[in-house]
Design brief:
The structure is a single chain. By secondary structure, this protein is mainly β. It is built from one helix and nine strands; from the N terminus they run H-E-E-E-E-E-E-E-E-E. It has one helix spanning 4-33; strands at residues 40-48, 73-74, 82-90, 95-116, 119-144, 148-167, 170-191, 194-203, 208-216. Strands 1-3-4-5-6-7-8-9 form an eight-stranded antiparallel barrel. Strand 6 (148-167) and strand 7 form a beta hairpin.
Length: 218
């Protein structure tokens, strides 16, 4: 028994050293994969209820769709929503900067009345406003944990409107510039390297935005 006791002590010491090394390795791995140390963020998402829903049909020049149908009446805008991609770089644990691009199509149908040679004809119109928005974005984080991040932000940029209308089969196109921007009242990112995000605010991308995110180190 006296010889067995030192052997047991040696085995216990070896097990303790091995356990400590494994715990240290796990801790290092966890630190590396924590989102707090992954400063680059690439994301893609979807936004609903863009501000353009509430501004009505976007105004163009008097030649669009045509001067000959000034009394055209259009339906309410229809859209599948805004699809976006973006990149952000954390300057520190609080501030990050980046850019964001989005695409959204607003579709309208309409009818107008045209008088030619004393005859009144009903004219059918199909209109689309294809909006491409790009903004520079600044976010402020007020909760930064390995698995969860909460933040607010603001973005300013431009929206290019690739307008197109078809009047009785004859297409007309016109490009216009609109201001673009986004105010994020509250954003939430969950996960580590791979994760998801949910944002609430208003602007060019929508009241509610959600998507997937991938963060990586330098």
């Amino acid at each position: 028994m006296k010889k067995l006791f030192p052997l047991l002590m040696i085995l216990m010491l070896m097990c303790f050293v091995s356990f400590s090394q494994n715990a240290e390795t796990t801790a290092k791995t966890s630190t590396k994969t924590s989102q707090t140390t992954l400063y680059n963020d690439f994301y893609a998402g979807y936004g609903a209820l863009s501000i353009f829903y509430f501004t009505g049909r976007m105004a163009h020049s008097s030649d669009y769709p045509t001067k000959t149908v000034p009394n055209a009446k259009f339906t309410e805008p229809q859209s599948a929503g805004n699809f976006c991609i973006g990149f952000a770089r954390s300057l520190n644990k609080v501030v990050s900067v980046g850019f964001k691009f989005g695409y959204q199509n607003f579709h309208y149908t309409g009818k107008g009345r045209l008088t030619l040679n004393g005859n009144v004809d009903t004219i059918s119109l199909i209109s689309d406003d294809r909006l491409v928005t790009g903004i520079a974005r600044l976010t402020f984080c007020y909760l930064n944990r390995p698995y969860i991040r909460m933040y607010s932000g603001i973005g300013i940029g431009l929206t290019i409107d690739f307008g197109r209308v078809t009047v009785n089969g004859e297409p007309t196109s016109e490009r216009k510039l609109w201001p673009g921007g986004e105010l994020t009242l509250m954003g939430l990112r969950f996960g580590r390297a791979f994760g998801g995000f949910l944002e609430f605010g208003f602007g060019s991308y929508g009241i509610l935005n959600a998507g997937l995110s991938y963060k990586f180190s330098d």
